[in-house]
TrEMBL record:
GO terms for cellular component: plasma membrane. GO terms for molecular function: transmembrane transporter activity. Keywords: Cell inner membrane, Cell membrane, Membrane, Sugar transport, Transmembrane, Transmembrane helix, Transport. It is found in: Cell membrane. Pfam families: BPD_transp_2. InterPro entries: ABC_transp_permease. This is Xylose transport system permease protein XylH. Part of the binding-protein-dependent transport system for D-xylose. Probably responsible for the translocation of the substrate across the membrane. It comes from the Bacteria.
Length: 405
């Protein structure tokens, strides 16, 4: 159906609009989380058959904590990929930040010392992000080279920080409490209710604003399905984790980061500029977007989140070592973003989906550990999943181009 100039585009608010909207999205290659959800269901069924303890509340709680550092880094990776760039230094940045944190916290005891050490560790990551972002934008060296060189250099800095000891344990109880603290059951349910309410408010509010401006809005039935889905998933998660000890504090930190930066990407001017720049840099520049400022900001954001991931990882592992921030963490965090649906070609992706991708990879690693599978098998499966995800991204991109989306 076409409209004459100046006429408002009709909105779909009935059941027919719901199903036709979904059909159009699938036909144009906009698969969303469907491949990730299917993969997650298959992985969980297979591992539950192979080991009946996989879906136990205790193991699922461990699974959630295992993906905290990967998920945090994947948020930063998502922003960089949305630009159509790459950052190969995030794992090394997390290692340096973890090393700085542990060394300072060893000298500064007590909660206050831990807080100061955390702040300095995050600032160190931000400083690295400023350096890399300016090098890429002002000098014009490709981000691949800058961050690859940075990755090598930061690993050298980490070795210098740790010295002859090699491994420095976390002895500050405040830092250890980040990964060992669990929320009481009632607080978990309260946070679940707040999450669903905020999601419903933001979703329905966005639809109302689009409707008032005469823009095409998502069918109300589709939005209600999303809200109900979020409510169901949130309830299952809280119920399952409460059957063990409750929601881990580190997991709550990750969820808060996902919601905060998910809001940034979808509901702020900065987020729209990131998508626009990744979609077409020249068009974004001509539209008046400050391209260099956006790029530098994204690299700062990615490095800062890498520092937070390093802090969470050091708390969970209880130490900083030369292995902190190695290639595995880098590849897993990038793979999590890609598996979640973030396009390697820029301009398309979601922070929320990156969390789902981290859950897929974490499930594979956790299941393999339960089965005592060799590392070779683990790498083969993770590599296959990544290859499939990139293949799906490539094929759906072709369909989107053909459909004019």
């Amino acid at each position: 159906m076409s409209t004459v100039p100046g006429q408002k585009e009709p909105t779909s608010t009935n059941d027919e609009g719901l199903f036709s909207s979904i059909k159009v999205r699938l036909a144009s290659g906009d698969l969303g989380l469907i491949p990730v959800i299917i993969a997650l269901i298959v992985i969980w069924i297979v591992f539950q058959i192979l080991n009946p303890h996989f879906l136990d509340p205790r193991n699922l709680s461990n699974l959630v904590q295992q993906i905290v550092d990967i998920g945090t880094l994947a948020i930063g990776v998502t922003f960089v990929l949305l630009l159509g760039e790459i950052d190969l230094s995030i794992a090394a940045v997390s290692g340096v930040s973890a090393g700085i944190l542990v060394i300072l916290a060893t000298s500064w005891t007590g909660p206050f010392g831990a807080i100061i050490a955390i702040i300095i560790a995050i600032l160190s990551g931000i400083a690295i992000g400023v350096f890399q972002g300016l090098w890429v934008t002002l000098i014009g060296v490709p981000a691949f080279i800058v961050t690859l060189a940075g990755s090598l250099g930061y690993q050298g800095i980490l070795l210098a920080l740790l010295g002859d000891t090699g491994t420095v344990p976390v002895i500050n109880p405040t830092l250890l409490a980040i990964s060992s603290t669990y929320l009481p059951g009632w607080l978990g349910w309260l946070l679940a209710a707040i999450t669903v309410a905020v999601f419903a408010w933001a979703t329905l509010g966005q639809r109302q604003r689009r409707t008032q401006k005469g823009l095409k809005a998502t069918p109300i039935n589709q939005l209600m399905l999303r809200i109900i889905g979020v409510a169901i998933i949130t309830s299952i998660v809280v119920l399952t984790l409460n059957l063990y000890k409750g929601i881990p504090l580190s997991a709550l930190i990750l969820i808060l980061l996902v919601f905060i930066f998910g809001f940034v990407t979808q509901s702020t001017l900065f987020g729209r500029h990131v998508y626009a720049l990744g979609g077409n840099a020249e068009a974004a520049r001509r539209a008046g977007i400050k391209v260099k400022w956006v790029k530098v900001s994204v690299f700062i954001l990615a490095a800062g989140l890498a520092a937070v991931g390093g802090i969470l990882g050091a708390s969970r592992l209880g130490a900083a070592s030369p292995a902190t921030g190695t290639g595995d963490l880098l590849l897993l965090s990038i793979a999590a973003a890609i598996i979640g649906g973030t396009s390697l070609f820029g301009g398309r992706g979601s922070v929320y989906n990156a969390l789902a991708g981290a859950l897929v990879l974490g499930s594979v690693e956790n299941g393999m550990d339960l089965l005592s599978a060799p590392s070779s098998t683990k790498y083969l499966i993770e590599g296959a999943i990544l290859l499939i995800a990139v293949t799906i991204d490539t094929l759906t991109r072709r369909r989107r181009i053909k459909a004019g989306r």
